[in-house]
Amino acid sequence: MLAPLAGWSDKVFRLICREFGASLCFTEMVSAEGVVRDNLATRHLLESDREDRPLGIQLFGSDPGVLAAAAKKVVELAPDVIDLNFGCPVKKVVRQGSGAALLQDIDRMVGIVRAVKDAVTLPVWVKIRSGWNEDVSLDVCQRLEEAGVDGITVHPRLQAMHFKGAADWSVIKKVKKAVRVPVIGNGDVGDWRDAKRMFDETGCDAVMIGRAARGNPWIFAQSREHLEYGTMPGDIPADERIDICTQHLNMAAEQFGERKAVKLMRKHISHYLKGLPLISELRAQLLLLEKKSDVAKKLEEYKNILGEKTTSAANTGDNHDRISSWAGE
Question: pLDDT tens, 180-193?
Fold first, then answer.
């Protein structure tokens, strides 16, 4: 599954991850208050279509009534799952009493789940961290199961850890043994090997992939391939990475308009092409471009230059001069 990544999990990125085998994708975390007030920015975060299914909409907030009202409203968009965020560690979310702050008030968490369950007939899931400053995952998950939750995603870090330190997968295993609802494991799944290891070590029902999917939708296909056939997927060739990056650019332009897409794609391009030669030079050049056609042309030039760089590894003639010129040397 693709995690609800703030600033990343828009419709275009979800569609690309689905193309490579993500079985369920989530929207970015969406404010329940924003949904109820029909906030324009919130509406943009919820944009989807029929191809973007199955879909989970993740809501955050601290008021049971507001979250129930928001859940009722997003049901009109026909998602497959309503997900409640009880784990976001970001300060501006925590200050509102939302996200991971609710790990300090389990009664309120239970009240939120019950209110949302009463409001909708869709499956209601939750995404939690292991605790605020101590592990309370077992108590939390058992109480939420009693309240009627239909699925639990466990990110086994404390709030204070944010994304530092190692995720303690033994917490996922402990929760899986303690509850009957599906348990989704999340945290430190960096590649297909980690996905397999999480299944093996925790017994979880599904694996949710977050940050490792940025610029790497292949992680879903590779994980599926290894799980189903036992094959050992290799590295993705540079030309394929550039081609999918260009596809992402074109889809983003259709969805968001050229100007926004070009700016948005800067971070995506950095992740798609991370580790390739001359990437710092490419990034510097892309910062100067404002048209989609110019970015696409630059990516195509970059792909050709990489091909020439490879073929000229043993020949430092004219190709070296062209590569140096392109890189601004």
Answer: 999 999 999 999 99
Specify the pTM.
0.93
CA atoms within 13 A on the CB side of 257: 3
Cα separation values, 243 from 112, 215, 230, Å: 44, 12, 27
> CATH 3.20.20.70 spans which residues of the chain?
11-229
Q: What is the pLDDT of residues 92-116, one digit of tens each?
A: 999 999 999 999 999 999 999 999 9
- Would you call 187 helix, strand, or coil by DSSP? coil
Fold of 11-229: TIM Barrel (3.20.20)
* Range list of H helices, the chain: 11-19, 32-36, 40-45, 64-74, 91-94, 106-119, 137-146, 169-178, 192-202, 218-229, 238-256, 258-272, 279-286, 292-311, 318-326
Q: Which residues are catalytic?
A: 88
